[in-house]
Amino acid sequence: MTEQPFVIVGAGLAGAKGAEALRDQGYTGPLVLIGDEPDRPYERPPLSKDYLLGKAERDAAFVHDEGWYAEHDVDLRLGTRVIEIDPRTHTVVQDDGGTVRYGKLLLATGSSPRRLTLPGADADGVHYLRKLPDSDAIKATLASIQRLLVVGGGWIGLEITAAAREAGVEVTVVESQELPLIGPLGPELATVFATLHTEHGVRMRMRSGVERFTVGADGVSGAVLADGTRLEADAVVVGIGAAPNLQLAAGAGLRVRSGVVTDARLQSSDPDIVVAGDIAEADHPLLGPGIRVEHWANALNQPAVAASTMLGGDAVYDELPYFFTDQYDLGMEFHGLVRQDDYDDVVYRGDVEAREFVSFWLRDGRVVAGMNVNVWDVGEPIKALIRSGEPVDVARLTDTGVPLEDVLGS
Ligand SMILES: Cc1cc2nc3c(=O)[nH]c(=O)nc-3n(C[C@H](O)[C@H](O)[C@H](O)COP(=O)(O)OP(=O)(O)OC[C@H]3O[C@@H](n4cnc5c(N)ncnc54)[C@H](O)[C@@H]3O)c2cc1C
């Protein structure tokens, strides 16, 4: 009997890393990687940062060299959408009518931007950012306009805002909450980002919502806010978050909540289907059940565990969530997991005014998350503090004279 291939659905970062991990871990059987985009797998963070700013080449975004897939005997099927997975017959159905039988399947379908359905939202000049061509279109737009309206003060909206300001474009950000990023960071650090952008001349309209877009002969011309304010703009970028692509998983009868539910080995409710990246809602040995994050590092690191599970191994995914951003001259890294209203205090080490500091979120006197802003090479001690689960002496934690590695020392 011929061996059924291992199939990976979704050729983003998690899919590409899944193929790499399977080969690295010794899988020599047939391997199919199916993705609906025309480009081979690439990383998305540059699309709102260096690539958008024209500081990085397109090639730098790709996960592997063009020849890597053939060299590793990976049957890469681009521009091909999977429309159905039948776990009973172990069959994947493609939109071109082709079918593939699988032995094991890795599902890594990622996310899609949430869309606005307001009047005018379909007009020319209203952009979303998820894919390479989106970034190309926004880059070309920034080179030719004077006024940009950004809807949504999340990570992507603010990174595009920074890129637009660097291109000399006037920017207004409209955000429904009282501060940008208040959801992922809480009000203390959200204020740091709000100040950063106002200092760079961005008009921040908080607690505001777009009611409709105005449209002229050349496309979108502005927006009317819920309070009646009219804003003029030559283009709009909508960054109101992303939703995981769960249709295939749900159609296959897998257990789905905010993502595809998995155990710590990233195995779904079907023993032959594993999950990685944005869509995985996984049990985490340290953080508890049902952890789903839309982070680059997750898509980078989870596939090695998913591959191990496909090969019968018992590795578990226990990395702490990690996120980074670059805006103007602010670079930051974030370790851990914090939700608004789910911590007691934020304390600082370093100079917040100068935007050179580490902030720590505390719950019950323990560090649950840490963010280093323009301070580097502190990821390991921050992670160690979170992992220890021990109460910290705040005076030592915030004293730059005490090495972070020694904070728990005495
Ligand atoms: C502009 C931008 C900037 C970002 N910046 C950061 C950052 O600074 N730091 C950070 O931590 N994270 C960042 N992220 C998030 C990070 O990129 C994602 O978490 C990561 O891409 C998730 O990888 P993934 O492989 O799970 O999903 P994706 O990258 O979404 O890849 C999934 C792939 O599967 C394809 N697919 C979906 N359904 C099907 C189907 N039925 N058939 C075939 N193919 C299918 C999709 O088209 C896509 O190509 C950013 C995201 C964006 C969009």
From TrEMBL:
<protein>
    <submittedName>
        <fullName>3-phenylpropionate/trans-cinnamate dioxygenase ferredoxin reductase subunit</fullName>
        <ecNumber>1.18.1.3</ecNumber>
    </submittedName>
</protein>
<dbReference type="InterPro" id="IPR016156">
    <property type="entry name" value="FAD/NAD-linked_Rdtase_dimer_sf"/>
</dbReference>
<keyword id="KW-0223">Dioxygenase</keyword>
<dbReference type="GO" id="GO:0005737">
    <property type="term" value="C:cytoplasm"/>
</dbReference>
<dbReference type="GO" id="GO:0016651">
    <property type="term" value="F:oxidoreductase activity, acting on NAD(P)H"/>
</dbReference>
<feature type="domain" description="FAD/NAD(P)-binding">
    <location>
        <begin position="6"/>
        <end position="302"/>
    </location>
</feature>
<keyword id="KW-0560">Oxidoreductase</keyword>
<dbReference type="InterPro" id="IPR050446">
    <property type="entry name" value="FAD-oxidoreductase/Apoptosis"/>
</dbReference>
<keyword id="KW-0285">Flavoprotein</keyword>
<dbReference type="Pfam" id="PF07992">
    <property type="entry name" value="Pyr_redox_2"/>
</dbReference>
<dbReference type="GO" id="GO:0051213">
    <property type="term" value="F:dioxygenase activity"/>
</dbReference>
<dbReference type="GO" id="GO:0008860">
    <property type="term" value="F:ferredoxin-NAD+ reductase activity"/>
</dbReference>
<dbReference type="InterPro" id="IPR036188">
    <property type="entry name" value="FAD/NAD-bd_sf"/>
</dbReference>
<dbReference type="Pfam" id="PF14759">
    <property type="entry name" value="Reductase_C"/>
</dbReference>
<dbReference type="InterPro" id="IPR028202">
    <property type="entry name" value="Reductase_C"/>
</dbReference>
<feature type="domain" description="Reductase C-terminal">
    <location>
        <begin position="322"/>
        <end position="407"/>
    </location>
</feature>
<dbReference type="InterPro" id="IPR023753">
    <property type="entry name" value="FAD/NAD-binding_dom"/>
</dbReference>
<keyword id="KW-0274">FAD</keyword>
